[in-house]
C-alpha cells in the first residue's frame, strides 16, 4: 500500500444519512490493529423537552478546511493511519447519526485518544450550527462549545 493511501484523510459534509460500515472501510488498513468510531446521534429529549429532530447548517468550505486541520493536528499527536470525519447537515431525525468520526491506527491507544480529541475539537472549532426542534413547536440554536448551556430560543 502506498504511503499516501496509508495516511489518507476523508472529510465529508452531506445531507445524506451516514453509513458507518462504508466509513469504516475507508479507514481500514491491513496494518491497523484498531479502528475507533465516535457516532453522535440525535437523542429524543434535552433538558426535559421532547426533541423531534436536529437541523444543522454549515459554512461548508470553511468547515471542510477546519476538519482537515483537525486531521493534521491529530496526525501530529498520534500515530494514525486512516481518519474519516463525516457530518450531516440539514434535518437529522431522532436516532440517526449526525456525525461519525473513524480513526485507524496500529494500536488502540492512539486511535482512542485521537477520536476523543477529534470530536472535542470539531465541536469547538468547526463552523457547523445545530438547531433542536421540539415537539411543542419551539426550537433552539445550540452553541458548539464544551460546557455551553446558553442558547437562543425561537418561536
From TrEMBL:
Pathway: Cofactor biosynthesis; molybdopterin biosynthesis
Protein's cellular compartments: Cytoplasm
Positions with a binding annotation for substrate: 107-108, 123, 130-132
Molecular function terms, GO-annotated: molybdopterin synthase activity
Superkingdom of the source species: Eukaryota
Keywords, alphabetical: Cytoplasm, Molybdenum cofactor biosynthesis, Transferase
Transmembrane segments: none
GO BP annotation list: Mo-molybdopterin cofactor biosynthetic process
Keyword Transferase: yes
HAMAP family recorded: MOC2B (MF_03052)
Summary of the function given for this chain in its UniProt record: Catalytic subunit of the molybdopterin synthase complex, a complex that catalyzes the conversion of precursor Z into molybdopterin. Acts by mediating the incorporation of 2 sulfur atoms from thiocarboxylated MOCS2A into precursor Z to generate a dithiolene group.
Subunit structure: Heterotetramer; composed of 2 small (MOCS2A) and 2 large (MOCS2B) subunits.
Family: Belongs to the MoaE family. MOCS2B subfamily.
Record's protein name: Molybdopterin synthase catalytic subunit
Organism in which the protein naturally occurs: Vannella robusta
Higher taxonomy: Eukaryota, Amoebozoa, Discosea, Flabellinia, Vannellidae
